[in-house]
Amino acid sequence: MRWKTTKQYTDEQLKRLVGVKRATIEEMVTATKKIAAKESKKISGRKRGPKEKFGWHDKVLMLLMYYREYRTFAHIAADYGISEAQCWRIITTLERWLIKSERFHLPGKKKLAQHDISWEVVLVDVSEHPIERPKKNSASITAAKRKSTP
Asked: How do the domains of the chain map onto residue ranges?
């Protein structure tokens, strides 16, 4: 699915397909654009390689398809007409950039531990127990065989 084709869907249909609202996709695109601009300032000179085949919206859709549908990089790459390695690079780069952004960054475990949360702990015994079965010995088996023979 490309970004062009998502325009025919309503916001509810797009949320069912991708998992997030259209406004959230726009926020993700602006966040990745900001961080990409910062990253490109670090690298001096012209960009190398051919022009990209698709824009930021399509890249974010790739990432969302990967998370929503658990599709493989090979399947997503086949849909977009790129190599599997290129698809992996795009998705992992977007993941890294969205983690860097303040909007899509989840708090760490130290931050979560600071809150006063009352925890309820439930312990479940899941140890293995042997199943009671009748003992097999050769005398009972051979006696049964002898009785059945004429």
From this structure: 3-108, 121-148
Q: At which residue do the structure tokens 């795009």 appear?
A: 90
Whole-Å CA distances, 117 to 110, 120, 123: 13, 10, 19
CB of 21 closer than 8 Å to CB of 15: yes
pLDDT digits (tens, 9 = 90+) for 43-73: 555 667 777 788 999 999 999 999 998 889 9
